[in-house]
Design brief:
Amidase signature (AS) enzymes; six-stranded mixed beta sheet; 15 helices; single chain
């Protein structure tokens, strides 16, 4: 009988199933037992018995055959809660599986529960009135970030090897960076959304939190490709896992620039020093040609923060404003302001900001193939919040925590965060931004870093 969840990556877990070293049911039961013992508060809902039945029937020849899968609570699993991590929606249930979950089931994965998220995915902190605070396994007093904080905490905390995530402003990269995991934000449309896909701001993508680069590649193979319920999704691309490592020779001579702060964020001095050192090492290992380039992405006004609230208003419907007191402070405040000031002029300023960001990013990628930056401005902050208002003693707004990740969401290009060490005992991520459709190159850069400077697969001290 297995008494602890698998401590390595997902691909090696599937290999262990195929060798008969453990069974999917044993792994699921070990996972559920570990969650029961855990104080991370990484899950908001568990559905053990259907998962056990699926584990018993698992076909381990499939890419994720028998693997316990955590699903971010903003995603859809038929019959499971559809709360958006919000008290006003606590009685809602999903009617269908999302396209993502459908494809992962087809690849053999066994969904067993929902991982916690920030309310409506609105901020980079997983602490809600519905679920309380989710905790970082590297230091339980700290946040794993958000919005995919529960997924990151579960994977880095040794509870399961893989969980789904979403990234509309950094919500995969930020928690991956805070918890010592690799994390890829795909080219917009790479993995389809839906059913009932909401266009919103054309920034959010889905993906995963996991422990290794090959896990990310296998996840892409299982989930990417056009679906007509998402008319903005991209045609299928084959061979992410099979091609992993085959592009290393193509990297030599490609142009890159190091812009730790992207010219927009205030980054902690120790974090900046580590990121720059690791960026230089990665560039050397890959044979990248480092060039000096002024990178200064535009700051976003408060209008951009209002843009995503239309979807929140749609979901809440006539529950708002009566439900205002049940919402987290940030969502309640944002909705109130949006109702007061959002108009045609506001919309025009939002579109002007989008154009300015897109043109700035396009000009950067006219000159270089990659931009090497920090993933987060600092290490993880307090689990209960608030969002940091100071870095290096300087006053910064709450938007500073997403200033390094949001540009790639607006522009739609891929970016990967790579664990590169710790500052004050907490993980730091190096972010590599690439041109559209260059996921294979980003994965090979991350793979090179993983081979040369391996990272801990789970947080030290996690109860495995």
């Amino acid at each position: 009988m297995t008494d602890a969840p698998w401590p390595a990556d997902t691909c090696s877990l599937v290999d262990a199933f195929r060798r008969g070293e453990r069974s999917p049911l044993e792994e699921l039961d070990a996972t559920l037992a570990a969650i029961e013992r855990s104080t991370l508060n990484a899950f908001s809902f568990l559905d053990p018995e259907p998962a056990r039945e699926a584990a018993r029937r698992a076909d381990v020849s499939q890419p994720f055959g028998g693997v316990p899968l955590g699903v971010k609570e903003l995603d859809q699993v038929a019959g499971w809660p559809a709360t958006e991590a919000s008290i006003p929606l606590r009685d809602e249930r999903s009617r269908v599986d999302s396209t993502l979950v459908t494809r992962l089931r087809a690849a053999g994965a066994v969904p067993f529960g929902l991982t916690t998220s920030s309310e409506f995915g609105g901020i980079n902190l997983t602490c809600t009135k519905l679920n309380g605070a989710t905790r970082n396994p590297w230091d339980p007093s700290r946040t794993p970030g958000g919005s995919s904080g529960g997924s990151a905490a579960a994977v880095a905390g040794g509870l399961c090897t893989i969980a789904t995530g979403g990234d509309g402003g950094g919500s995969i990269r930020i928690p991956a960076g805070f918890t010592g995991l690799p994390g890829l934000k795909n080219t917009y449309g790479r993995i389809p959304k839906g059913p009932n896909m909401c266009v919103a701001s054309l920034t959010a993508v889905t993906g995963c939190l996991t422990r290794s680069v090959r896990d990310i590649a296998r996840f892409l193979d299982a989930t990417n490709g056009f679906d007509h319920r998402d008319p903005y999704s991209l045609p299928r691309v084959e061979g992410y896992e099979g091609g992993l490592g085959t592009h290393l020779g193509d990297l030599s001579g490609k142009r890159a620039t190091i812009a730790v702060d992207l010219g927009a964020a205030v980054v902690d001095d120790e974090v900046a020093t580590l990121v720059r050192e690791q960026a230089e090492l990665l560039a050397r290992d890959a044979g990248l040609q480092l060039v000096d380039l002024e990178v200064r992405v535009p700051e976003l006004g408060y209008e951009w923060a209002l843009a995503g609230l239309a979807e929140v208003a749609m979901i809440l419907g006539d529950r708002y404003p009566a439900c205002e007191d049940d919402l987290t402070l940030e969502i309640a405040f944002g909705l109130k302001v949006a109702h007061q000031v959002y108009n045609l002029d506001t919309r025009a300023r939002i579109e002007a900001q989008r154009i300015r960001m897109n043109e700035t990013m396009a000009a950067i990628f006219d000159e270089v193939d990659f931009v090497l930056a920090s993933t987060n401005p600092d290490v993880a902050f307090a689990a209960e919040g608030p969002l940091p208002q100071q870095v290096n003693g300087a006053n910064v707004g709450p938007g500073n925590n997403g200033a390094l990740t949001i540009p790639s969401n607006i522009f739609g290009n891929p970016a990967v965060t790579i664990p590169v060490g710790q500052v004050r005992g907490l993980p730091v991520g190096l972010q590599v931004l690439g041109r559209h459709h260059t996921e294979p190159l980003l994965l090979d850069l991350a793979l090179l870093a993983e081979r040369e400077r391996p990272w801990p697969l789970v947080a030290p001290g996690s109860p495995l």
